[in-house]
Specification:
heterodimer, A: alpha+beta, five-stranded mixed sheet, B: alpha+beta, Cytochrome-c3 Hydrogenase, chain B, three-stranded antiparallel sheet, 13 helices, 8 strands
Chain lengths: ~190, ~375
């Protein structure tokens, strides 16, 4: 067992004893994962940051598991001494997505939360941050949700420039103008 | 402080900023009392597009996340996918990747010379360094077919082997650039105007730097030795001999010294790679791209770009499309929360100067 493995083992034991109901797992070299209820995420982050030295926030992301009617939030934090990444995962309900506000732990979480609120519609009660981040006056379904239909949105919002109606399917347009048939192998890629 | 402040919208079109981004400033005279970053002028929904592209098609979109340095995103994505698949990269592939990443670092630093000195009013250096950067782009063109976007680093290795006589050209270009760097030093670092503009400007609190998500040259300019290439080595970095540039000062000057030091380290690394380049395969045989599935799971791949840690969080559900790909660029922390803090108390004339020193790249904030 080398040095890195000892550190990983130690971290996993510490986390498991501090949070017995969490699911702590070894992912791969230099990476450990912890899955826990959403109410306890803030205490995991605080313990990792203040007591275990995981004071660098690499990333926060939201994944839409539409089939299971859930969003998954993944916080990735890193320790400059251990050089290990800890993935803190939690699942929240997709119908009424709400997650505890954690931007007092890491200030950058403010930016991540603004993005996730805008793109997935996850609410962070008590969170202060401008509503618009990337989008402006957006009133449709949050666009990064999997059921947001990009093509319908584009069809409803934008119009074809006059004389460019056939520019959508270049292959079809060329065939029509030149009178040549589409070769068999290319037919399966055609929109028609 | 006077009661009445003036509001100034700097951007979204501004010569000192790469891409479009606005900083809303509250000014008391010419001193900034409040700054607010406003993005949203460059949103291209890349992450949404990738959900409908297969794994191979994604690589053509990823490199467009940040225009000045398109190679680190390719490498970060490749590393994440390799983690998910457990795919090995042949030794030669690792070295060629490292070669491209270091050449990319050199070209980004050359572009930084132009941005940093240009925003201090020293335009000559910009003309020189962008001209010299083209010699590195020539190498990229010969190796990958593209000058800016390469789509060269694939999960499993690199797209093609180096052409004949390429090593010699690389070494000659490095010799030339090394000589030129001495002249840049005279123009930039020995220049009283640059020294006066850079020293004591754009101070980052070093005690809070890691906590605030500062990475790359701005972090090493706070005297903190952190570099993904050393901390979690990837590709061939564990086999190369190089040093991190760590300088005290926390200001624009110390960040400039970091880059001045590291561009020479990169040149030395390129020479080492050419010297050690192993023979053999450069790409692990890939499946049919149209039917390529990646095992379910999530992985965060990270590399050290010229501006700091660049990472991709890739989530797969086992299908031919990525479930979710989310980028973490250095500018995501630097240009929003950090910039808003650093700008308070600064002079309005220093805004784009400070932004350049932090490696601001708006396209990667909103993707």
């Amino acid at each position: 067992m080398d040095n890195a493995q000892i550190k990983e083992e130690k971290l996993m034991i510490t986390l498991q004893s501090a949070f017995p109901d969490a699911e702590v797992a070894f992912m791969r070299k230099d990476e450990v994962s912890l899955t826990i209820d959403k109410e306890k995420v803030a205490s995991v982050l605080l313990k990792a940051k203040n007591q275990l030295g995981y004071n660098y926030l690499s990333h926060l992301t939201c994944v839409d598991w539409m089939e299971q009617n859930e969003f998954e939030l993944i916080y990735i934090i890193w320790s400059p001494t251990d050089k290990i990444s800890l993935y803190v995962r939690t699942r929240i309900d997709r119908e009424h997505p709400e997650m505890e506000n954690t931007d007092m732990i890491w200030r950058q979480l403010n930016t991540y939360q603004r993005e996730i609120r805008e793109m997935f519609g996850v609410e962070f009660p008590g969170f202060v941050g401008d509503k618009d981040f990337i989008l402006e006056d957006w009133e449709e379904m949050p666009p990064m949700r999997r059921d947001f239909d990009t093509l319908t949105y584009v069809d409803d919002t934008y119009f074809e420039r006059e004389g460019r109606e056939d520019a959508r399917d270049v292959r079809e347009a060329i065939t029509k103008k030149s009178g040549e048939e589409i070769p068999d192998f290319a037919k399966k890629y055609s929109r028609q | 402080m006077r009661e009445k402040t003036t509001t100034l919208y700097l951007g979204p079109q501004h010569p000192g900023i790469t891409g479009n981004m606005m900083v809303k400033l509250q000014l008391d005279g010419d001193t900034i009392v409040k700054a607010k970053t406003e993005v949203g002028y460059l949103h291209r929904a890349f992450e949404k597009l990738i959900e409908r592209r297969n794994w191979m098609q994604s690589t053509t979109i990823l490199c467009r996340f940040c225009v000045p340095e398109p190679d680190p995103p390719e490498a970060a994505f490749a590393l994440a996918v390799e983690k998910l698949e457990g795919r090995e990269v042949p030794e030669r592939g690792k070295y060629l990747r490292t070669l491209v990443l270091e050449l990319a670092r050199i070209q980004t630093y050359m572009l930084w010379y132009a941005g940093q000195s240009g925003s201090a009013g020293l335009y000559t250096i910009g003309q020189w360094s962008v001209g010299d950067r083209n010699y590195v782009l020539d190498l990229f063109e010969e190796l990958t077919g593209g000058r800016i976007y390469h789509m060269y680093i694939w999960p499993g290795g690199v797209r093609r082997d180096i052409p004949e006589g390429f090593e010699d050209k690389v070494l000659k270009t490095m010799d030339y650039l090394e000589k030129r760097l001495d002249q840049f030093d005279k123009l930039v670092f020995d220049n009283a105007i640059f020294q006066k503009r850079a020293q004591g400007v754009g101070i980052i609190n070093p005690d809070k730097a890691i906590e605030w998500g500062v990475v790359g040259p701005p972090l090493r300019g706070c005297g903190i030795a952190h570099d993904v290439r050393k901390d979690n080595p990837y590709d061939a970095y564990d086999q190369l001999d190089f040093e991190m540039g760590v300088f005290e000062g926390n200001d624009v000057w110390s960040r400039a010294r970091v880059r001045q030091f590291e561009i020479r380290q990169s040149i030395s690394m390129v020479r080492q790679i050419i010297d050690k380049l192993p023979k053999g395969e450069y790409l692990n045989k890939m499946p049919n791209p149209m039917k390529w599935t990646v095992p379910a799971g999530s992985a965060y791949g990270k590399v050290e770009s010229a501006r700091g840690e660049f990472g991709f969080h890739v989530v797969s559900d086992g299908s031919i499309y990525p479930r979710r790909v989310h980028a973490r660029g250095p500018a995501y922390a630097h240009a929003v929360t950090l910039l808003e803090d650093v700008l308070v108390g600064a002079n309005v004339a220093d805004v784009s100067f400070i932004m350049n020193s932090l490696g601001t790249c708006p396209p990667e904030i909103e993707r």
